[in-house]
Hints:
This protein has helices at about 1-10, 15-50. It is rod-shaped. It is about 85% helix and about 0% strand. The mean pLDDT is about 90.
Amino acid sequence: MIILAKKKYHKRKLDEESFREIVKDPQKKLIEIETKINQIEARVQKLESREAK
């Protein structure tokens, strides 16, 4: 859906506000996922450093 919206936006078949609305939620979800991944990576590094001792 995002790819199609990008194509339409670049061809000026979709206005900027509509494009923003389409991509807003997926971008928010991606940021949430990246945050969780970073938290998990930090936990793993902490556990690995404990095991190394």
